[in-house]
Design goal:
Order of helices and strands: HEEEEEEEEE
Number of helices: 1
Distance between the termini: 29 Å
Helix content: 10-25%
Length: 157
């Protein structure tokens, strides 16, 4: 009985890996700070990405950031078919930030862009390097969002 149960679980895992028709992704983005990332894929060409996390300003992690971008898959490459498909995606969206108590304006609102280059592995994992510049509209803080590079790893389900 244990062998049959183990075989069924193994078959389900293999089927899940080979399905590759994922609609959701959840993961972690490390860069300007640490963020939890959720993606909702509408098709193979576009998806919504939502990030929430703490931003690191001089090592203090005094900012809570929430960002949402709508992304389009611009290019796909089949450089390493045995490992996965490479991609380049780009998008636009908005950002809301909650600064620490010492800031002149504790709430920031901005416009964000997003460019990501990565690989969707044949397993349910995606790894990407992305750049998300944000122009903040309040309190002359537009420079704070220019250097937002990050490394993202997501689990697709």
């Amino acid at each position: 009985m244990k062998k049959i149960l183990l075989a069924v679980v193994a078959l389900l895992c293999v089927a899940a890996v080979n399905a590759q028709d994922y609609k959701n992704s959840i993961g972690l983005r490390i860069g300007y700070g640490a963020e939890v990332q959720y993606e909702r894929h509408f098709s193979a060409e576009n998806y919504l990405e939502v990030n929430a996390g703490l931003a690191d300003l001089l090592g203090s992690f005094d900012r809570l950031m929430v960002n949402a971008t709508y992304n389009w898959n611009c290019f796909d490459w089949d450089w390493t078919p045995s490992a996965g498909r490479w991609f380049l995606s780009a998008g636009v969206g908005g950002s809301v930030g909650f600064w620490g108590k010492d800031a002149k304006c504790p709430i920031q609102v901005g416009v964000s862009g997003n460019v990501a280059f990565g690989i969707r592995f044949n397993a349910p994992v995606t790894l990407s390097l992305d750049y998300r510049p944000t122009i903040y509209l309040l309190n002359d803080a537009w420079v704070d969002g220019v250097g937002h590079f990050g490394l993202t790893c997501t689990y697709n389900f």
